[in-house]
Amino acid sequence: MTKEMIFSALDMFSPSFLAQGIWKHPGDRSTDFNTMEYWLDYARLLERGLFDMIFMADTLGVYDIYGGSRDAAIRGGVQIPMNDPFMLVTAMASVTKNLGFGITGNLSFEPPYLFARRMSTLDHLTGGRVGWNIVTGILDSGAKAMGHDKMIPHDKRYDVADDYLTLMYKLWEGSWEDGAVVRDLEKGIYADPARVHAIDHQGEYFRSSGIHMCSPSPQRTPVLFQAGASDRGRQFAASNAEGVFVNGTSKESMARTVADIRKRAAALGRDPQDVKVLAGATVIVGRTEKEAQDKRQDYLRYASTEATLAHASGGMGVDLAKYPLDEPIRYEETDANRTLMEALTKRGDRTYTVRQVAEEMSLSGRNLLLVGDAQQVADELAAWKEATGVDGFNLARLTMPETLKDIVELLVPALQERGLYKRDYGQGTLREKLGGAARLPASHPAAGYRKGA
């Protein structure tokens, strides 16, 4: 039986995300991102297309590496201004019944006890539709804004993350037993104190003693997502993540990444199929191939070279302004996004020049870019799924609402005809809709903190 694709919409609470400069396009509504109506329309459109979730990326800080200044990022709206994505969840959930919400939370700067409460609260209010994209940050500017001299070293950030996750699991899974909330009206007992336990966490980086402030939410632990593709990031994902986001434009490279993550998960005693993998993609769909190609050329007229290079420089931690346009970029060790650095300098059968970065990343960043009519794009997505083993795609829009409307009205029906996309939502929480049980399985490290485990 053919497995149906998972579809997630990929965006940011900002005027631009991956396609730098496209906010200037006359058909784009993204400059309305500060309004509630924009996001409510967004949520309704995704649910009409049976999207599994919207994935809200996020970053703290400004891209200030290019040219040694933040000016290019501010001029181009390169993920700045940036609002808090958590504020969108309850509003978007109120106009949908099935759409899930994968929200990025930076554990380097979020107090763990308060963050655990925030996620449980959202899981309650959405009926179990919340996921957490676990990030540790990449921008020194964000670290400085939060009172630090710079980001802590790359691999050490994952050591901190291991400790953070252990504390989260204790709160979400171990503090309140199943059945602790009794709501006994006659005896006047809301919850049984004998079934509510204080956790005591004395880790290398975090300490906490006390009970979790929230009673168990529908999922208890939100669905856990992760996107780190470095060696240390993959090991962290293999241990903790239920969903992993991958990037790339080579089927062979992506297939190796997917296989490696699942092999690592199996070595840790997890079922590798419990780890869903979504590939980043940008699709331009038309009623004909010519219409799609015309749209691509139209979008390219609004793409900003300066903003694209400001984005790439910040992600790599290297000022691309110091290179001649046609000189290959050299590998440098930084504590920013090592995966991006390696992808542009060391992986695959080529290296990139600054000009190539500006041209090839202008519409889709590191994501796969597919252009064609609905049947052609459906063919390509099916081929990528078959060749790489991914479970679905994280789809970044170019313009809102045109990109998403084309996916919903043209691409989704083409996939449904092939049996590659659902015709209705399944029942249950986000975890259940993505193919899991209501709770994390016993093989997941979080399960070890349940009472009696």
As a whole number of angstroms, the C-alpha radius of gyration is: 22 Å
Individual helix count: 15
> Total number of β-strand segments?
13
Report the structural category.
Answer: alpha/beta
Q: What value does the average pLDDT take?
A: 94
CATH A-level architecture: Alpha-Beta Barrel
CATH class membership: Alpha Beta
Strand order of the largest sheet: 1-2-3-4-9-10-11-13
State the domain count: 1
Structure overview:
The chain has a single domain, classed as Luciferase-like domain (TIM Barrel, Alpha-Beta Barrel), CATH 3.20.20.30. It contains 15 helices and 13 strands. A hairpin with a 4-residue loop joins strand 7 and strand 8. Helix 6 packs parallel to helix 7, helix 7 crosses helix 8 and helix 10 crosses helix 12. The longest helix is centred in the middle third of the chain and has 21 residues.
Question: In a few lines, what is going on in this structure?
Answer:
The chain contains 15 helices and 13 strands. It has helices at residues 36-48, 71-76, 89-94, 112-126, 140-145, 154-174, 231-240, 251-267, 289-300, 305-316, 338-345, 354-360, 374-388, 402-417, 430-433, and strands spanning 6-12, 53-57, 100-106, 130-135, 181-184, 189-191, 199-202, 207-210, 223-226, 243-246, 276-286, 368-373, 392-396. The longest helix has 21 residues, at 154-174.
Using brief descriptors, characterize the structure shown.
453 residues; 8-stranded parallel β-barrel; alpha/beta; single chain; 13 strands; TIM Barrel; globular
